[in-house]
């Protein structure tokens, strides 16, 4: 009997190795798997390469993982905002490596990994420092830069509902990078608020099929606070 429901966050995260590449879903604070990130801090894996759209807000979630000194490199598209002080301090002191990737390129590089695409040409970044020394090519009169997939050893994502087979549905914008990260990783761990009985999820609403998911953990609903804004004085 297939049952991917983990007893706890700690059980789901067991086995993540030092030096792993961890894809973490979320856009700002929407869809951030906070419980899994906190669990990863407790789990202790270090020298991680983290892939996320942002580089953490305030002192919690991804910022807490950075502050704990567990991350060697971060690949993201939007590292700095009003409350990105943890990232700022680590980067400026040379304790954290940054690979800055345009947002569309980031999503497509992850998607390419899940789709089995070896590399692709994209126009974004051509003629800028973001292109680095990568190969360029003119296609139909337009210049493109060669981009490579981003594969993950593990993906940590947040969904709304799931079943014991690992089928997932998401809530609105919390979906963001979750589906492509699940496809691009060797192991996908997802939190859900509700565990559905097998067969009760409408197949037309399932965004991430269970074949891409290895562990599901149920978590309580907790109100989140928007990131990137400073409170009024």
Q: In percent terms, what proportion of residues is strand?
A: 15-25%
**Total domain units:** 1
What's the helical proportion of residues?
A: 10-25%
Strand/helix succession: HEHEHEHEHEEEEEEHEEE
The residue-averaged pLDDT reads 94
Oligomer: single chain
Secondary structure tally: strands: 13
What is the CATH fold-level name? Glutaconate Coenzyme A-transferase
Task: Please explain how this structure is put together.
- Pfam families: CoA_trans.
- This is 3-oxoacid CoA-transferase subunit A.
- InterPro entries: 3-oxoacid_CoA-transf_A, CoA_trans_fam_I, CoA_transf_BS, NagB/RpiA_transferase-like.
- GO terms for molecular function: CoA-transferase activity.
- With 233 residues, this protein is of the alpha/beta class.
- The chain has a single domain, classed as Glutaconate Coenzyme A-transferase (3-Layer(aba) Sandwich), CATH 3.40.1080.
- It has helices spanning 9-13, 34-43, 62-67, 85-92, 103-115, 178-184, and strands spanning 21-24, 48-51, 71-76, 97-100, 120-122, 136-139, 142-147, 152-158, 161-162, 168-169, 185-192, 194-195, 215-218.
- The strands form three sheets. A seven-stranded parallel sheet has the order 4-3-2-1-8-11-13, with helices on both faces. Strands 5-7-6 form a three-stranded antiparallel sheet.
- It is globular.
- It starts with 8 loop residues before the first helix and ends in a 15-residue tail after the last strand.
- The relative contact order is 0.19.
- The model has no long low-confidence stretch (mean pLDDT 94).
């Amino acid at each position: 009997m297939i049952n991917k429901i983990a007893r706890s966050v700690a059980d789901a995260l067991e086995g993540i190795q030092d030096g792993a590449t961890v894809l973490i879903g979320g856009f700002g604070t929407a869809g951030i798997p906070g419980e899994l990130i906190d669990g990863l801090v407790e789990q202790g894996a270090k020298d991680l390469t983290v892939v996320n759209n942002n580089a953490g807000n305030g002192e919690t979630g991804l910022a807490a993982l950075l502050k704990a000194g567990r991350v060697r490199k971060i690949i993201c598209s939007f590292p700095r905002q009003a409350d990105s002080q943890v990232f700022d301090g680590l980067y400026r002191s040379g304790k954290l490596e940054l690979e800055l990737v345009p947002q569309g390129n980031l999503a497509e590089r992850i998607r390419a990994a899940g789709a089995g695409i070896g590399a692709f040409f994209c126009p974004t970044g051509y003629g800028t420092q973001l292109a680095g020394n990568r190969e360029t090519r003119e296609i139909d009169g337009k210049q493109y830069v060669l981009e490579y997939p981003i594969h993950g050893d593990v993906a940590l994502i947040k969904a709304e509902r799931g079943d014991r087979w690992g089928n997932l549905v998401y809530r609105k914008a919390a979906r963001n990078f979750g589906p492509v990260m699940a496809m691009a990783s060797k192991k996908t761990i997802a939190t859900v608020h509700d565990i559905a009985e097998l067969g009760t999820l409408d197949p037309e609403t399932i965004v991430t099929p269970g074949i891409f998911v290895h562990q599901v953990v149920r978590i309580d609903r907790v109100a989140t606070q928007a990131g990137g804004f400073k409170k009024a004085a």
